[in-house]
Amino acid sequence: MDAMNVDAMNVDVMNVDPTVVKGGDHVIIRMPSTNAKIVCVKPDTTISLGKFGSFMANELIGQTFGHSYEIEKGGTIKPHQLSGFDDAEITEANNQKINDDPSAQKLTFEQIEELKAKGLAGDVSAQEIISSLTENNESFAKKTEFSKS
Questions:
Q1: Strand, coil or helix: what is 104?
Q2: Do residues 27 and 60 lie in contact, with contact meaning Cβ atoms separated by under 8 Å?
Q3: How much is the average pLDDT of 32-37?
Q4: CA-CA distance, 13 to 64, in Å (whole number)?
Q5: Which of 61, 1, 8, 59 is nearest to 31 (CA)?
Q6: Please, what is the Cα angle at 93 between 91 and 99, to 5 degrees?
């Protein structure tokens, strides 16, 4: 599934730790479409994000504001691994000689569509789909670390 980002909307000054989501807090959820949704985190209820899926509100309680999560099958969430430039190694490599050719992808159109369908059903995570696409692409390994991120 796609990742969502949770930010604080209203932090109660009476709480011991205002950086952690509690039952009754209002949060802003930024979805992959860049749309945002304000929801009240009510214990033992389901938070629905339409086509992006739904999850139990209890999954957010105790989590820190400002992090991204991925919705898994069964209504659970897990922290979303963001790729970034922090660990990228600076090398002499460049993308100049990479030919943008569809034949570099070893997966067929049908296999890619099957992966997408499994992702929408929650059977495969977004990270697993990305890994499969990159592992089966002959030119991906030739790319710079920055373009891989």
A1: helix
A2: yes
A3: 84
A4: 16
A5: 1
A6: 155
CA gap 55, 112 in Å, rounded: 26
Q: Give the total residue count for the chain.
A: 149
- CA-to-CA distance for 74 and 87, rounded, in angstroms? 32
Give the residue carrying structure tokens 């990228």: 88
Question: Are 61 and 41 contacting, i.e. CB atoms less than 8 angstroms apart?
Answer: yes
Whole-model pTM: value is 0.50
| pLDDT tens-digit readout, 110-132 | 998 999 888 888 888 888 888 88
Q: Are the C-beta atoms of 126 and 2 separated by less than 8 Å?
A: yes
Measured at the CA of 146, the angle between CA 143 and CA 147, to 5 degrees, comes to 50
Please report where in the chains the tokens 């570099």 appear, as a residue.
104
Please write the tens of the pLDDT for every residue from 87-101. Answer: 556 666 677 777 777
pLDDT of 69: 84
Distance from C-alpha of 129 to C-alpha of 107, rounded to nearest angstrom: 11
Question: Cα–Cα distance between 81 and 78 in angstroms, integer?
Answer: 9
- Structure-token match 């490599």, residue found: 93
